[in-house]
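Hi L.,

You mentioned the student needs an example of a multi-chain input paired with its predicted structure. This one should do, with 568 residues in total across all chains.
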Amino acid sequence: MLAFVLTLVLLLGIVIVLAYAERKVAAFMQDRLGPTEAGPYGSLQAVLDVLKLLQKEDIVPAAADKNLFKLAPVLIFAAVFAGFAVIPFTPSLVPAGIGIGVFYLLAIISLDVVGLLMAGWGSNNKYAMLGAMRSVAQIVSYEVPAGLAILSAVMICQSLDFQEISYQQGALINQFPGQEYEMNWLFGIKALGINTTLVGGITTWNIFRAPLLLVSFVIYFIASLAESNRAPFDIPEAESELVAGFHVEYSGFRFAVLFLAEYSMMVLVSLVAVVLFLGSWNTPLPNIGPVSLAYWTSGTVGEWSSILWGGFWLLSKTFVLLFLQLQIRWTYPRLRVDQLMHLCWKVLTPLALAVVLGAGIWRLLMV
Amino acid sequence: MEQKAIKHTSGFWFAIKSLLSGLALTWRHFRKARNRRTPEYVTDDNYFKQPDGLVTLTYPYEALPVPDNGRYRLHNEIDDCIVCDLCAKICPVNCITIESVKATEEIGTTSDGTKKRLYAPVFDIDLAQCCYCGLCTTVCPTDCLTMTPVYDFAEVDIKNMVYHFTDLTPEQAEEKKQLLARQQEEMAAAKAVALAARKQG
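Structure written out for the whole complex:
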């Protein structure tokens, strides 16, 4: 229960910040000012938007399939929110520390697709239906390269537990039960003979200890953009042709929930990218001889210091990725459907398969 | 000028390069967002020297100054108006409504010396209809109808866009009408007397 409340509060907090940041970042990149009126520098704009949405009339179309229509936003949000359960926030704090976290996450996120189809079908509107089909086609397609990229990270780490993967990517590796005698080598190659177990920092992040994972990080990041329906893969939205995609019939609070789910998805995929590839809650600063920066900026496991440091590093890395997502939205033009599918099936999927093969070989070098 | 064939570049590394240069572009704009355009008059040296940073202004609080001879809202200096009706006639959208009442005697002169002989109980300009062509100001013989640099005069109620320029209250207008009617009656009576006298004679 505590984990539920904690996760929800954290999620809503980040989403509010993100919604505000999106407007300001968009404005600044287009040489505009963005919101300025509500609160200092328009900082209350996102909150006021939520209040406005809450006041709006709740419209359910007369010809809609009412049960599906009403259930869809709940299902979509629940699917995304359930994914947060296995994300480790700090060395000692994870809402649900289950051993098959990665598998659970991929499975529960896929439920999102069912919700989208329910929304599109239940609206009884051809635009909503088309939007939902495009959305679903895109998400199902991009789950393949994303899943393969995650698989390569899992193969390197030999674990489906997010917390174990997190511990492996830092100087605290030996404090995780079952990892007491694990060791990290530079670039993961034992033959080089440079032990980085106690160095930690960026040298033990997955993209550094197995540089091949840098490729799978890029693949995962691109695929995650598509999974959260972000530009340049926001064709389900397609304001110009589809009058806003699968959620065209939704109003008021239901629309707010769909919107919240979309932003939560952005946060979730960024968190997963950070946990799997960018060192999770681990500090980027390595221990250099007597200057043990990594220990100083990690805190002691189980105490407040580690919670604060861990949360700080995890969130700051996540915000960097979120900023990148925003920047990409205001930089690149939207892809056409065929280009989208081309990128997914002919570029990313073969590349991800090659990376999976490479990750297997790399793992052999690590032991 | 000699035209060069544009070489179509493609390939993996070119794509990466162009994607990165796109990111660099937006990042540059983001970074320069701490500079802001300032409201400057067009003759100011700085007017064209604000190439980067945010270009929008928070309008009601900041505004680009308009030229002194800006031509936006119509204004009628009713004291100078001789109620000639030319502006209403030339207006392509018929947004000017004028009624006139002949004065019983000369009621003064305008600032350029023209005699005023008509009262205007109604002189309305519907600025919601006005197309700002400025024809009315060119035909105005006494230059009393002008366009002013005021451009921000939006109203919540569209009825408020009708500007009343008359300086007569309805009562005064009624009084002037009655004066004119009495004078015309007197003149008609005098005419009838004169006519009768001629017939007799």
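You could point out the following to them. The interface with chain B takes residues 25, 27-33, 36, 327-328, 330-332 of chain A (CB under 8 Å). The first helix of chain A runs from residue 2 to 29.

Best wishes,
N.
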